[in-house]
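Chain X:
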Amino acid sequence: MKHTTLDPAAIAAALIRRPSVTPRDEGAIDIVARHLEDLGFVCNRLVFGGEDGSDAIANLYARYGTGRPNLCFAGHTDVVPPGAPEAWSVDPFSGILSDGQLWGRGAVDMKGAIAAFIAAAQGWLAERGADFGGSISLLITGDEEAAGINGTKKVLEWLAAHGEALDGCIVGEPTSAAALGDMIKIGRRGSLTGRLRVHGVQGHTAYPQLADNAAHRMVALLHALTTAELDRGSAHFQPSTLQVSTIDIGNPAANVIPAEARAAFNIRFNDCWTGTRLEEWLRERLEQAGGAGAGRYRLDVSVSGESFLTAPGIVSTALAAAIHQVTGRTPELSTTGGTSDARFIHAYCPVAEFGLVGRTMHKTDERVDLADLATLTEIYRRFIGLFFEPF
């Protein structure tokens, strides 16, 4: 193992310069693998998809050591599109270091955290030595920002099939809200998307008795959904919410009653619900609102993740202690925000999410303070030591 100190800013900048917009990899996984192989990690490059018409996704599972416990860091090298390049102050894939900050798409979400963990692992292993009894691993995917079909979920299945067990996992999502270390995620709400199509009869607006207005039916159905209280929250979760994301009539004529209307909505739900129970509630609510009837409406539902909670334990406790040692902050244990790949990992081992401040993630001029990157590296290094301390 090489003992030269790795610079997380240099690693993150190299990753940013790879325009790995989902589902493209552009060599980002190879950069991670090369650094880890230099440190003595055994790297498994795993490609899933492609042959069935889905996108072929590059993934990586790297492990140092063979013993237990196995502490895993999970992250993703894929990023969301940068939008109009001219709206940025810099080239979004330049990885420029300027005024004490690293700029570019993925700096915060989440190439910076990947770089910090690699540097932290190198520092801890150089200090502690190779013979610590356990293992450190990284699960890196290129399919987190999209559907997540050929990414973390399939890597976890591959691990199980090959007898690889994880004993704890930290996901490097940008969970910090206002200052680095103010928040850890120990669970996430579930996400359900509903697509509603309502049918009517087209006609002239002057003769409504001869038509059946699909727009009116849609308004009534959406009103029934948006005015209902799903729940009032639970011990660890805020109340579930339903938000309409689009309504499409597709009718350019002001004097024509539309025959069809479409809408989509998303529900972020807590542990009071499962996706199945929520779908049942939706269908009952729509029927009560008058949506039942031959061909009047169609509801299609997809659930991208169930709600989950990892009770405070070794991962979150070690993380909180490391954060306090480095920053003096006591992090909030939260379940707010969107979904992440922790929704797959929690079924395999205790998991918590912690990373950089997320104020600029997915935005124009995404950037991270170099001081935060260095601090995150130190927090991760302390966390590794605290995780293995009880064993």
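Chain Y:
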Amino acid sequence: MSQAFICRGLYAITDAVLIPDERLTIAVEQALLGGARLLQYRDKSADTGRRRAQAQALNGLCQHYGAPLIINDDVELAAEVGAAGAHIGQDDPSFATARTRLGGNAMIGVSCYDQLELALKAEQAGANYVAFGAFFPSPTKSTEIRASLALLREARAALSIPIVAIGGVTPENAPPLLEAGADALAVISGVFAQPDIQAAAARYAALFA
């Protein structure tokens, strides 16, 4: 893993439905001020020009606050804007392709859902972190996949890279995830759907204090 990046703490993930375009940089800055340590730009729309402009703006903001910007599902966009890295899932370009395109210093994370085997393969391939979930019902990411605390404990014993927990994580239900071995908490609506984004982010950040 690149020494420049630490995958620990609140990992805030943007959502185009929750955050209007004109408020994106403001919302993200509030999350960073509240203590988000990493940011993932997640936008599934087909408007490549808009996505590039937003990613460039967020990359500048993240660099200012010393937080890596990770691009969800789009290795090319991550390369174009010079983001810190990318997050890939089962249906995205292979890890080897992403590493070749982004280089050895990029931070690349892999979604492993509820499967330890995927995480072991990702670590062996050179992933910087793996993500498991959903741990709880999520208002923004509908999935029938459920990861368990037992999986998290098993993964922590088997893996040496950081583990991210995602899916309906709140400041209230997060402590058992951290105790079971999660290094970071990936959060969408728990931060960006809140009336005070900075205060919401701070509640998560406090769990790592």
